[in-house]
Amino acid sequence: MSSEIVLRDAGAPADPDSNLDFRFENTINTPFVDVEYLDDGQAISDFYTVAATSGSVVDVTAEDTKNEVVATSISVVADGSTWNYGVVPGTRMKFSASLANGWTGVIGIGCLVSSGGALTDRFNIGILESGTSSTQFRVAAVNVGTETSAETAVYALPGLFIEDAAQDWVVRVAQHTEVARHQSATPGTYTLSFSDYQSGSPDTADVYVSKDGGGAVLCIEDAKLDGSELYQHGTGNGYSDANDALPGMSIIFGDNGDPSSETFDIEVRDSYAWIEFAPDVTGSPGTWQSGPLTITESGETAGTITASGTAYFWVRMSIPVSTSPGDRRLYTIRTRGLTV
Fold first, then answer.
1. What is the pLDDT of residues 212-260, one digit of tens each?
2. For a tag on the chain, would you pick the N or C end, based on fewer CB atoms within 10 A?
3. What is the number of other CB atoms lying within 10 angstroms of the CB of residue 308?
């Protein structure tokens, strides 16, 4: 096994319940049989409550009142085995066959949820005025792998969000897999459309992209709709490097039949540039900086986190004075390192 860095609450770094990426809990009875995080580009960091109003309908609310991906009266299949998509975007869930009015569960994405299902802290930035900074958070980077991580750093990437309607057609949209292109996604709205669908093994279609309402250009020729083929600049499998219509992004399409009548929007925001990191200095933030921050386990050489070791850092968002109101702040925080 290699090194593997996970981000946890700094108050309990040894406890997997402190994971900050994703967690779910049943709070009233047991509506959830299982919930999985899809990492498909649809998740928005928040604390979600899923409450059943009958054996086949649920309401979803979020802690952040500005979160627009929640809804009420959502029909679900509650048989204990069927995966339900789009209830909380970015996840899928199985509901108990005994689901009934009042049964409730919670899902935390990018926040700290206690073992009792209570929200302890939320890392969704929420509403901020231009020229201000968010609350600062102390985070633990824990190496849960079996090998040492060297040259370990934490950094922010452009935030991506694809609309919920794309669930069956797009398996995943994310940043480019190469570090050199991680931050090259440019802000805007990218609209995907399809043509020349061909049924086969697998099905294929040409993918076109228009940015901010401009003309559509060929992005991928004969894209495989198989749920596994990854397309991005440099893959040499039909993605047009010359057009590079999804710069800094990677995408995988689902096997769901003919997409010719479908269009989907991918939103990219530049608010990742407003994320600032600081080293941990005896429990307090050191000098704040943008860009990658080298994180180090106490007593080790710079950038080193040993197996089962922990490094700490601080994070906040600092909003420029010139920022326009109403924009959704999207960003991704990632760690990277070398297994030694």
1. 999 999 999 999 999 999 999 999 999 999 999 999 999 999 998 999 9
2. N
3. 12
Helix residue spans in 131-288 (DSSP H): none
Round the average pLDDT of the chain to a whole number and report it: 88
Cα 120 to Cα 113, 283, 319, 327: the distances in Å are 6, 19, 25, 26
Tell me which residue has tokens 């209570």. 118
The residue type at 323: T
Q: Which residue is associated with the tokens 């108990």? A: 96
Q: Residue 223's pLDDT is what?
A: 97
> 56-66 as b/e, with b when 16 or more CB fall inside 10 Å?
ebbebebbbee
pTM of the full structure: 0.77
Model pLDDT, residue 338: 85
Which residues face 150 on adjacent strands? Answer: 338
* DSSP structural state of residue 97: T
**DSSP code string of 24-41:** EEEEES--EEEEEE--SS
* CA terminus-to-terminus distance, the chain: 11
In Å, what is the CA distance from 60 to each residue of 76, 83, 103, 119, 269?
12, 17, 12, 16, 25
* Tokens found for residue 12: 């309990």
- Per DSSP, the three-state class of 180 is helix
- Burial of 31 from C-beta contacts in 10 A (0-12 / 13-18 / 19+): buried
Distances (CA, A) of 290 to 278, 308, 315: 9, 27, 10
Burial tier of 147 (Cβ tally within 10 Å: 0-12, 13-18, 19+): middle
Task: Read off the tokens for 286.
Answer: 């050191």
